[in-house]
Amino acid sequence: MIERKRKAAGYLRRSTDRQEQSIEDQRRTILAFGGARGFELDKFFVDDAISGTVTDDRKAFQQMIHEAREPGCPWRYVLVYDVKRFGRIDNDEAGYYRFLLRQAGVEVIYVTENFNGDDSDDLVRPVKQWQARQESKDLSKVTIRGQVSLSGDGWWLGGAPPFGFDLVYYDSTAKPYMVVRFMDDGTKEILDSHGQRQRTLPRGESIAVSKKDHARLAPSTPERVALVGRIFKMYLAGLGYKTIANRLNGEAVPSPRNGEWAPIHDGRWSSSTIRQILCNVTYVGDLAWNRRTLAKFHRIANGQAVLRTPYSRNRTETNPKDDWIVFPNAHDPLVDREVFEGAQRLRESRDQRTRGTGFRRGRGKNSPFLLSGILKCGRCGHTYQGHTVTSTKRRKDGERFRTLYYLCGGYMNKGTSVCQKMLFRQDRFDERVVAEVGRRIMGYLAEGGMDLLRRCVEESLSRPTGDDPSREIPEIRGKLAEIEKKADSLLEMMTPANREFVDEKLVRLRQEREALKARLRELEAVSAPAEQANGLASEVLSTLREFEGVFKKGAPEERKALIRAFVPEILLEPDGGQAIMRIRRFPPPRSRAGGNLSFRFIAGGGFEPPTSGL
Fold this sequence. Notes:
3 domains, 42% helix, alpha+beta, 5-stranded antiparallel β-sheet, 18% strand, Rossmann fold, 4-stranded parallel β-sheet
């Protein structure tokens, strides 16, 4: 009799190319382990050079979880090198993903951890998971301390230098041996200490240097240095950010980054690029650090490494100015300090003049511009942005008259070298779009779409997502009762000696209980009576019939979400004053009767024929 192999998937991960367990080392160890114990490796999921302290950025990890939960997944085991490779995440997060896999019938096996395969694993595994997480947190604190020390000596702490600077690398004896110059396409030119080019590194390839080597900022080519000085002079002469960008674009001066560096760049100067140069103290020779916090675990406050709050760890935060670490005269400047400080005084005075004029900064959720982001310019391809024009005339209450327009973002940020100035009244444009969408909805409902949409809603609410809920609901309720009994037993047996063990067990029971409760709520909603589904369908259709009234009463962010549900893009041809609006296609109201209908089909792929003349 031939022994049947157990199908498994392998998960491989490393954080950097210097890590001890390489991807191939992990693969060989997992294959050897699987071959000796009767596993057949169906596939491998690989996250290379990605930190294990987070899971959202690990695409292969997320794909593995997704495939494991798909019906018909062929493998029932995940083989991973050790706890650290699964992730340097906390116990709650690790337990969450292990529970998702277990719920799908998939077991995680750590091939080098020597777990016993019994209940003692439940006690040892969380300890090792905590240790893996703690190692990263301790390393974070040590790294920050080292960065503070290095920045105090004027060394560069990593990343691309500001435009106009190169990086000069020094060995452990403080002797310069290499110059790195970042090019606008993302490549790096490597020069020797005499300025002779040695080679070019492709975009994305890192520079291999010794841990004892450090880099310092130094002026780049004379052309780049002169351009930085010219930008400051133009600003002090009275030119604004956009005007400077427009002039440089008109002269075809290459910007610091083009589309080969990253898709978000197009090789042209923008207002934001000019502003970043004018505000950066690096250009006067100072080294400013800790202006923003990107680290996962710690930040610098009052000169010390302190833990970041859990809710803020996944986003970049701007630090208070008191926590900035500034080291004056750390490297050679590109502009005189008097010139730089004069630019700052001028910038502050201009900012004060614009305050209170109705000029909106950022992307506030309460912005009245409904179509910004989906309204695209047919001339240059940029999206239109909101623009407010304030009149010199005043109302009776003393307020100035303000008119809202849409204006091409290419012109706003990069000037006439990219696009021309042409204003479109925001209120008239929005009203035309809303009226067109409302007309389509009312026409569709009048042609018989109401009955079809009602069936779509009812079937979507009543269609089972898997097995018959009437069988699964009692099973889940029984499991919940068992969990309550286990929790009561654990609490009765708790003593000071076993408190930590019992607490760990209770946490896991609570996680399991919450997952079961969520599943129970889902099944109970699926098995709701027909009259409940019918009532909700009527409510949805009532909202569609009163589209314009509901639209006008909604908050700005709700109105934007509503219009985007129907209109993903509007292409505006400024020269002809016409717009092409794509509206999502509804299912044909009279071509189908019955069958499997759902909202996925309603909101799906196609679009109505273009609507022009807006």
